[in-house]
UniProtKB/TrEMBL annotation:
This is Lipocalin-like domain-containing protein. Residues 1-19 form the signal peptide. It comes from Pedobacter suwonensis. Keywords: Signal.
Length: 124
């Protein structure tokens, strides 16, 4: 009986060590770049132009896509998919929504779609 308890104890210790040494989660997988970024933003559509040096962009994730909500009466950009580039940095992919790069502290937008143009240089 004593031998069984020793073997069981050793297995329990080994299991605890294996679980605690599990590979760390990549910070980008935890959506650290979801949140609000502040900086200069602009939007142009035809004769309508909106610019702000103290604008904001709020980033949210729904499923596999991201949404960019602007202040300053700038239309939102929704349904954006991303591809990982480098360490914890992502760039947008897909038709008409390329030109967005994001990481935990910087957001850059250069999007042209259907004669509309969005730009943002923001940090948090």
């Amino acid at each position: 009986m004593k031998k069984t308890v020793q073997i069981f104890s050793m297995l329990l210790i080994a299991l605890t060590v294996m679980v605690s040494c599990k590979k760390d989660t990549d910070p980008a997988d935890r959506d650290f770049f979801v949140g609000t970024y502040k900086g200069s933003v602009s939007y142009r559509s035809g004769e309508n132009t909106i610019t702000s040096s103290d604008g904001k962009v709020t980033v949210s994730k729904v499923g596999e896509t991201y949404n960019f909500y602007f202040g300053n009466n700038i239309p939102d950009i929704t349904g954006v998919k991303f591809e990982k580039k480098g360490d914890n940095s992502y760039v947008s992919i897909g038709s008409g929504l390329t030109g967005i790069s994001i990481d935990a502290s910087n957001l850059t937008i250069r999007v042209a779609k259907d004669s509309q143009f969005w730009t943002a240089d923001c940090t948090r």
